[in-house]
């Protein structure tokens, strides 16, 4: 394939993705209808209420369906989110009421009854879309058989009538609900064939709500006073934590640091034999081991930080809004590809500060450092989803699009960034000359080892964000929609600040005991918050009602990927802040 053909392929892929990104967002221009206009209703998926990731195509249950079933063209983000929109027999014309309209007559065999009964037992819900508005309903209900005296027995019923309540304002649809009529049910307790007439009704009512605010109802739960109090309590708790850390750093470290700088040199050779961080000035800027791996961590961490900040920008612009997860997945894929140039540039430029050769290996490591584990975990999860027949299983075409996007966009941009970083390379700014041979590190007590410092460096930032993390996990693995991006952004900034402050303090403590190997330790201490985040994921899962191999795999698989990303981001923050601090104090020593 020539370079021109590869460039054309890249442009086509980007155009398709951006088109999908635009097509998902609602716009008043293409959501206006006249009375009697046909507004298509799409059925999406069904699944157990307690397992959000375990969803199946709507017609996996023997509902009434058209012949043939037509699947709606989906964007990349919708496929990644597990959406499979298909046509339905329901006819909901704009502002036309219907009463007990027959959907179909269906003979349910014993196997069909068993499928519906299992769905009712597991609290299956269905999801549909009407004018790009998602709404949900339950498949059936469970009742106790009050006529049985010997023991309690349960009876299972299937809703055979659904009522659609639609609100409109002028010529635009604002809200839609689907309610199963509890009085119109069919008994499916026994595996006995039954004839069912499925019906539906449509009720239209006016509302004063504006079209621009029709998505706000999905965020209503997060805006309740009790949730706002929790958000503000978490915010105040985090602010107090960061103020205490700043005060502690100022009182304990800065005062001692000033005294150290004042007494660094007296002109007397005997008096100059100081101990502590001043004594290792010839070793503190010694390059770390596994230089290429370290540079790759810096590159990928910077890339992911850029990606997260870009996501917040898209939220502020209104491109990402509640319960449009297809848009979020599309944005993640595009932004990861585009920000790969940041990873390449940062990795190569940082490597070239140490050596002019070998930067290609560092850039290669950056290319697979996050994408590699993500691909492996994603492949395993896809195999599990395929074995269950779940909608989370990616079609072959989608997998090929992702591979082509990575091969013809992500990798070229990564290499481009690496070349730019090499061309604009600079030397490492070291205030002190490095000795030829490293100084031996004195024996240290156990509480000054890396694991103990990682515990301290991770626990304090985690304690500041734990309440918001609960809301985030509830949104990610439940049905609570997190729609306070301003609070989420503030908490992210606070997390970065606390990580930076703690990294500086822990690095100073490490240097004070003449331990000059601070490079990797600052990364581990900064990123250790991610370990606590994953541990909290385990706690969240055990306290939830989620069950089954599929849900278990998806929760821990994708949380592992997310926490790994936070480890790289916060590890980069920890090192960068520590590097600025170390340069500052040794530059001050040099000036003295």
From TrEMBL:
Residues 1-26 form the signal peptide. It is a multi-pass membrane protein. InterPro entries: EMP70. Keywords: Endosome, Golgi apparatus, Membrane, Signal, Transmembrane, Transmembrane helix. GO terms for cellular component: endosome membrane; Golgi membrane. Its main location: membrane. GO terms for biological process: protein localization to membrane. It is found in: Endosome membrane; Golgi apparatus membrane. The chain crosses the membrane at residues 232-254, 293-321, 333-351, 363-390, 396-424, 445-467, 487-511, 523-542, 554-575. It comes from the Eukaryota. PANTHER family: TRANSMEMBRANE 9 SUPERFAMILY MEMBER 5 (PTHR10766:SF119), TRANSMEMBRANE 9 SUPERFAMILY PROTEIN (PTHR10766). This is Transmembrane 9 superfamily member. It comes from Gossypium anomalum.
